[in-house]
What does this fold into?
Amino acid sequence: MTSCHQHWLSKTVIVAAVMLALCPAVMAVESLFEDRVVAKGKGIKVNYSEVEEAVIAFKANRIAAGEKVSPDLEKQAERTILDRLVASQLLLQRVTDADKKEAQAIATQLVNDAKSKAVSEASFRYQLIAMGMTVAKFEAQMHEQSLVKAVIERELKPLNAISDEQVQVFYKDNPDAFQQPEHLRGSHILFSYKDPFTKAELPLEAIEEKKRTADKVLSRAKNGDDFGKLAKEFSDDRSPEHETGEYTFARGQMPPEFDAAAFTLKTNQVSDLVSTRFGFHIIKMHEYFPAQKLELAAPMKEKVRTKLQQIAIQRNLPVYIEKLKKEAEVVLSLEAKP
It folds into this structure.
């Protein structure tokens, strides 16, 4: 529920209380605005306003993506959200001090990752505002999600251990999953057709100016100037984790014009100016890796074990949550009218 709605609701309840002595019928009106409980059990309670707030955010995200939200989809979202809220409260009851310590590190990383993907701190805040959230609320959500994750892993990992034999069977039965495609490690400098901050399309005159700048930077790169420093100074690729423009990517991941240029370069060679739908690129190839099947060595074996364990945990999680619901004697009443 939005703050505007809450303010309006508060005023309505106050007025209704004042009018109560004058008109007994107002009692029926007042009851319409009560925040009814839609789930309860031992130590847990979920109000409809919590579900409503999450549904509003869900609808906003779908509409922003150009998708329609039918009444049936909205009802389905309500039920799913209520189930998740109940599950979260049940799991949060089981948090230990060790879980809290582990969750704090996970939450901090999640928040930092989210911020790093935004162009700036202000842009990050604007994105949250568009979703009806504050930074404090976002951080609180990340912390709660991390606590839930810590509890799930601590309680379900021992019950879903994966043997070496299971790892070997998966490796043998899924050869395509271990086929590493042809890829390379390279750097690029991007001169975007869009404003890097507003994402608005640039006018033709600005694009022509970008082209002139790109030609000058290209000349410097081919003459041996430090490519990473050029990327930091001129590139419109603002990813903090790629500030020197370096990426590792497989053939087919990038636009076809980019691929065609990058995969024909020799080690340390700089491309000519490459035009894609994103803008002008200057590419430097550092290292080429041919396609190959990955061996099931120790690091890969543990990655497979972890993945199989995560799949097993997700498969068995609903059963575990149902067990917690029964123990807490949870009663759901989402369909009930206030």
About this structure: The chain has a mean pLDDT of 86. The two ends are 17 Å apart (CA to CA).
